[in-house]
Amino acid sequence: MDSHLKETRIDGETAYEGHFLKVNRDRVKLPDGSLSQREYIRHPGAVVILPLLPDGRVLLERQYRYPNDRVFVEFPAGKIDPGEDPLACAKRELQEETGYTATDWKFVCTIHNAIAYSDEHLDLFLATGLTPGEAKLDEGEFLELFTSTVPEMLEQVRRGEITDVKTIIGTFWLEKILAGSWQPD
Questions:
Q1: What is the domain count for the chain?
Q2: Which of 109, 140, 144, 167 has its CA 20 to 30 A from that of 64?
């Protein structure tokens, strides 16, 4: 169907392999037959949790992100370990980062957040029936928890105060879910 747009890999190499990321460099044949090069990051995927408290408030995090040298407002999230089920990862990450557990989980959607240079995907889950507990942050992980309402979050998105793509998309989903116009699977 889309074969007229497909690029074909000729050969490639690992340009960089670190603890967390792997950068590949491939030589490709373009649809018109010419040759080009593609550099891209391999990523195991991650989960994003939309934790909705019984009073309708949303549990969020403030976390410093080194590449942008600033603190971001984000939903709890984390990398999927090799062979780990995404829902199991979401449950683990929610408890590790926030201390909360949830009785009800619903898959919301999958997003691809950096399609031009990475194969990373994020699976979003709605978590309800929340119970507080003690967080178990990874070594070297520092964050603050707080709560907000969806209208407050939408206003922060509009003002450019929330710029993290997974949090923006999750906020838009929550708005539709709470209005009853969209339902997760």
A1: 2
A2: 109
Q: pLDDT tens digits, residue range 67-109?
A: 999 999 999 999 999 999 999 999 999 999 999 999 999 999 9
Identified catalytic residue from 17, 93, 139, 152: 139
Residue 185 lies in a domain: no
| Confidence at 185, pLDDT banded by 50, 70, 90 | confident
Structural domain boundaries, residue 23: 3-42
What burial letters (b/e) apply to 65-80, b meaning 16+ CB within 10 Å? eeeeeeebbbbbbbeb
- Residue 108: partners with Cβ closer than 8 Å, 6 or more residues away: 50, 124, 125, 126, 170, 173, 177, 184, 185
SS3 175: helix
Which pair of structure tokens corresponds to residue 2? 């889309």
Confidence of residue 143 (pLDDT cuts 50, 70, 90): very high
Q: Look at the block and give the residue holding tokens 């995907």.
A: 121
Would you say residue 20 has pLDDT above 90? no
Q: Is 139 a catalytic residue?
A: yes
